[in-house]
Fold this protein.
Amino acid sequence: MRFAAVSLALVCALAACSKSPPPAGKWEGGYASNGDVVAARVEVLPGGQVKVMAPDLTNASGSEEQMSQYRAQLAADLANGWSTVVPREFDFDGKTFRKPGGVAPQMEWDKDSNQMILELYIGARPALPVPLHPVSDFHDNPFPAG
């Protein structure tokens, strides 16, 4: 009986420590601020692999018409290049996606809102958080209407 109790306790402890499966789904979003313009998509496949693409421009400036053209070009690059994106593995702890064995967060998922933040690393700058919203299917333009 004591062996069964110890075995049951061990199974419960292992279950509590097991990794949460990544949330399957699709997220997209656009970001434009301080000269940075990003169009992004993330798809977490049912097996846990992740497809991610985020074409960007830095030091972008100009009229609102020029900025609109930049957003349109990045959205087109995203839509046209998406079919070539190869799924990759990430470590997932229930909230944060990291490269296998890595430390730096690549994405943060909020279970309650089902929103994703893509942490985009451009050069030696700190991570740029790009907010993504869940979608049932991707759109031609990932930028929020506004």
User: Anything to note?
Assistant: Residues 3-16 have pLDDT under 50 and may be disordered.
